């Protein structure tokens, strides 16, 4: 896209960290929801996608990843699909195996990271111990003379949240994130499933362009026509612009996570591309 078509877009932020360090709780605190309560065994097993509108009107899109060791691939994908990673470390537990794994995904993806030291309300919370442990993994936070931003938070007591969103927006500003909203949409499948009542569903993060009801698209070996777009609050919406996560209905089948969705001119073209890919 030529520069004159590019407009500022919200940052996409992936939340990563060891199991139970409070990633989903932190998102719940930011969104005013209670997703954790609905999770089986309190364990996140899929990638959640949300958009938060701050009091200032600024928007931030979030991808929540599981911390359980079984979900390495989802964490890798989360690091690749994002602008910024927020690494959540519980202040009473410190650096653990999936914290280290997350750091490695972040380094491989080459994305900037902000460290959220969570559970500061707990007895035994020790933020400086976390900062020192991070040094052993080549992560130097500002207080240690480095350039990685960190922030002390409590998802439970809802403290440090404004500071966290400020740091995210500051990092985003430096990155000058832009996309052209006025072109045929392209996005990445964050997750997909077959819903008994509604058929194949895909949660898509729009990268560029604007996705609208009625648009015809190809996604992996599947194609479709957008029957409905549903936002993270379960509301049906008319369109989704850059950085917006949205649930797409109207697919021919269930695509793969990580597949690229591209809007095309017409149904004939969509079938042609999907058929070709299926061979
Ligand atoms: P996975 O997605 O399964 O890896 O876990 P998670 O990182 O999303 O953690 P989750 O939000 O499920 O929280 C795990 C537990 O820690 C829950 O019992 C939360 O209530 C608790 N918790 C999260 N944040 C805080 C906090 O700031 N303070 C305290 N005291 N407890 C917290
Ligand atoms: Mg979780
Ligand atoms: Na959990």
From TrEMBL:
Residues 8-178 form the Tr-type G domain. GTP binds at residues 17-24, 64-68, 118-121. It comes from the Bacteria. It is found in: Cytoplasm. Belongs to the TRAFAC class translation factor GTPase superfamily. Classic translation factor GTPase family. IF-2 subfamily. One of the essential components for the initiation of protein synthesis. Protects formylmethionyl-tRNA from spontaneous hydrolysis and promotes its binding to the 30S ribosomal subunits. Also involved in the hydrolysis of GTP during the formation of the 70S ribosomal complex. This is Translation initiation factor IF-2. The chain holds residues 441 to 719 of 948 of the full protein.
